[in-house]
Write a structure and sequence with these properties.
Chain B: This is GAF domain-containing protein. The complex is a heterodimer. By secondary structure, chain A is an alpha+beta fold. Chain A is built from 9 helices and 5 strands, in the order ααββααβααββααα. Chain B is α+β, with helices and mostly antiparallel strands. The chains are: A alpha+beta, B alpha+beta.
Chain lengths: ~240, ~290
């Protein structure tokens, strides 16, 4: 590879998500992935499909025509990109002019040929247990996909996948922290409300809880909200 | 629950969690090796950083496995004899080599939401912090940093809490915040009482704190209840609700009254609260009767 060392190092930083103290810019990261893959793998064009948690699948590509091809493939559920994303396994280099491609992807293949591509291959983003997307690489007559290039493309996909998975985990952990705190605060309010109600009506705390729960059920309200209103004196039961 | 009831199941579950944590540690270790090899080849710093992060992660998983195993052994031994059901935190104390340890979870205003202690004096110390509103866990969560005090420094640093703590026979205390890069604020703290020399500030201690943070929050086996060992101070909250009605004040103020009463009388907060809930002790506008 003729790429100077420092340039390569900068690209790795970019693909690893840049500064870890700043929030991950996912569109920027995936745009870098497709642009850098084309540059370093020596592919004619590159595209990527990504599905993160509950967000809709997004398509990125080194040019608009390729983006439409990749997105169309996703919508129709046909082509190497969606296949690779679904299985988490690489789709080997395939000749788009051959019979295999035409049979396997009847709508996709003529469109890809129309853009001047003669070869296609796909690499998963993330392992097969937790693939979050795929990287699709296109070769042409003048720029065929090489074995070395394809091996390298998997490494680039791996770096980006680690950054994406780490970001996902961070977000989940954030959500979990919030949930835990709400559950603990809610428990506090319910215990206090039991005490308030028990004192107001000379009941045991267990009897008070039955009344609280009963009120929440009949009025289809959250127990926590009812408890909070009792504690704050806005609701008398 | 009597010894034996679901005991074998709980022991087996703890061993399973330990094995899973060891497997996670190994995976992280292997990835770290890959990145180190890669870094050696390219001389590239992000790979070095990534490898270091993976190594830290592996150490936390390994520490987590140690905690689960200590818990499993204690529950197994308890199943064959008398005594109190072992707490998860007593295994943490064992791994830390501390007399006792306590975990505190706090809300955004830094108020204690729940506590888990290995036993005395940690339990009493957490109550003192709760009653007096000062102490190592509170400082650790407020400043998001390690707190350490020994000997006389305990009494000068915390004028109310300090003397009460040393009266319990504690000579040294440290507290570390439970923090993650993902959280905008600190979730709680681990306090250790009379730790073995050299523990505080060591990598091993950091790993235990990291393991506990994951255990409470983000691990696949995360359980903020610490397998039944978390105390929510339910009676105290119930008592606060009752006193607020009897005295005619806000629940927060009622809670402050109960804390003050327990501290001045030298009665455990929980015992006093139970007495209030049972109707054996009533607070009135004029004072307790």
């Amino acid at each position: 590879m003729t790429t100077p060392r420092q340039h390569l190092a900068d690209i790795f930083v970019e693909l690893a998500g840049g500064n870890p103290d700043e929030p991950l810019d996912i569109p920027l990261l995936l745009t870098s992935l497709v642009m850098r893959s084309r540059e370093l793998v020596g592919a004619y064009a590159c595209g990527a499909l990504v599905t993160l948690d509950v967000s809709p699948t997004e398509a990125y590509a080194s040019d608009e025509g390729t983006r439409e091809l990749v997105l169309g493939a996703h919508t129709e559920g046909q082509g190497p990109g969606p296949e690779c994303r679904r299985t988490g396994r690489p789709v080997p280099r395939t000749d788009l002019r051959g019979r295999v491609a035409r049979q396997r992807w009847p709508q996709y293949t003529p469109r890809a040929l129309g853009l001047g591509y003669t070869q296609v291959a796909a690499r998963p983003l993330g392992g097969h247990d937790h693939a979050v997307g795929s990287l699709t690489l296109f070769g042409s007559e003048d720029m065929p996909l090489t074995d070395e290039g394809l091996r390298f493309s998997q490494s680039l996909a791996d770096i980006v996948a680690i950054a994406l998975l780490r970001d996902l985990e961070l977000n989940r952990s954030r959500t979990q922290t919030g949930q835990m705190e709400r559950a603990l605060i809610s428990r506090l309010a319910i215990e206090q409300a039991k005490g308030v109600l028990a004192a107001q009506r000379s009941l045991s705390v267990d009897q008070a809880f039955v009344i609280l729960r009963g009120h929440a059920r009949t009025h289809r309200r959250k127990l926590t909200e009812v408890a909070r209103e009792v504690v704050e004196g806005q609701l008398t039961l | 629950m009597t010894p034996g009831d679901g005991n074998a199941g709980q022991v087996a579950a703890a061993w399973r969690r330990a094995a899973a944590a060891r497997a996670r540690a190994e995976r992280a270790e292997k990835s770290a090796q890959r990145y180190e090899a890669w870094a050696a080849e390219t001389g590239h710093t992000p790979h070095v950083d990534l490898a270091a992060a993976l190594r830290r992660s592996a150490a936390c998983h390994r520490s987590s496995a140690d905690l689960q195993e200590a818990f499993a052994r204690r529950v197994a031994a308890w199943g064959q004899g008398p005594g109190e059901r072992p707490r998860f935190m007593s295994g943490v104390a064992e791994v830390c080599g501390a007399e006792s340890v306590a975990l505190t979870l706090v809300d955004a205003r830094n108020s204690q939401l729940a506590v888990a202690a290995s036993g005395e004096p940690a339990r009493a110390a957490q109550d003192l912090e709760f009653m007096l509103g000062e102490g190592p866990s509170r400082d650790a969560t407020t400043h998001r940093g390690l707190v350490f005090a020994s000997g006389e420094a305990i009494e000068t640093r915390w004028p109310c809490f300090g003397p009460a703590l040393t009266a319990l026979g504690v000579r040294e205390v440290a507290a570390a915040p439970l923090d993650t890069a993902a959280s905008s604020r600190c979730l709680g703290a681990l306090a250790v009482f009379d730790p073995r020399p050299g523990l505080v500030g060591s990598r091993a201690f950091d790993d235990v704190v990291g393991a506990l943070t994951r255990l409470v929050l983000c691990d696949p086996d995360a359980d903020p209840e610490l397998y039944g060992g978390t105390d929510h101070r339910d009676s105290v909250q119930q008592a606060a609700g009752m006193v607020s009605v009897h005295v005619g004040c806000r629940v927060d103020d009622a809670l402050a009254l109960i804390k003050a009463r327990a501290f001045t009388r030298g009665v455990p907060l929980d015992a006093l609260s139970r007495a209030i809930v049972a109707g054996d002790l009533t607070f009135t506008r004029e004072g307790p009767s």
